[in-house]
Amino acid sequence: MLNNRVFDGVSARILVKTRRCQKKLWQYDPDTYLHCQKVAQVSYFLSHLLRLPSDAAQYVYLGALIHDLGKTAIPKIVLHKTGALTPEERAMMQRHPSLGREIALSIMKNVPETEKQVVLDVVEFHHERVDGKGYPYGMSGTEIPLAARIVAVADALDAMVSYRSYRSKPKNVKQALEELKHNSGYQFDRKVVGKLVEFFTTY
């Protein structure tokens, strides 16, 4: 769970509400909760590579911690299906960002907009693509908040290097970075991917 010492620029209200969202995730699906933990760590690291102010990086981290909150509204039989999704199941899955925003809003209803906006942006927009072919709204380029573009890259990286029920084995980090580079400027923000690749190739 959250460590208050990390969040010197974030209010106690948003931390408490984020914990409640995390608890909901953990209770419904521990695998999704753990995925969000890993994505949050990469997102926070990426935020610093992009030289975001400390408080902005903290809000990106909080959003990433609960970016898949909407999956608590998806039946587990769909969430963990090993075969291809039906069109109806795919449509259901593609609703999880907007469902996540609704759930987060219900939990964070007493938190001021200025404190929760970045968190909600991450939850709602992390599956948008810079080429406009993402979901749920088909936003493109800088229409997509930077926080969501950062988390989209971190989310994809963790998905590729982790075991999933729908594929035989994960990619290694080098393969995952190549995939991110291949889709840079289309699915993912070119600058965000570039900073991540630059770090791995330099260090």
Automatic annotation (TrEMBL):
Domain HD-GYP: 10-203
Coiled coil: none
Tree of life domain: Bacteria
CDD domains according to UniProt: HDc
Cited InterPro entries: HD/PDEase_dom, HD_GYP_dom
Cleavable signal peptide: none
Name the UniProt record assigns to this protein: Metal dependent phosphohydrolase
Native source organism of the sequence: Syntrophothermus lipocalidus (strain DSM 12680 / TGB-C1)
Lineage: Bacteria, Bacillati, Bacillota, Clostridia, Eubacteriales
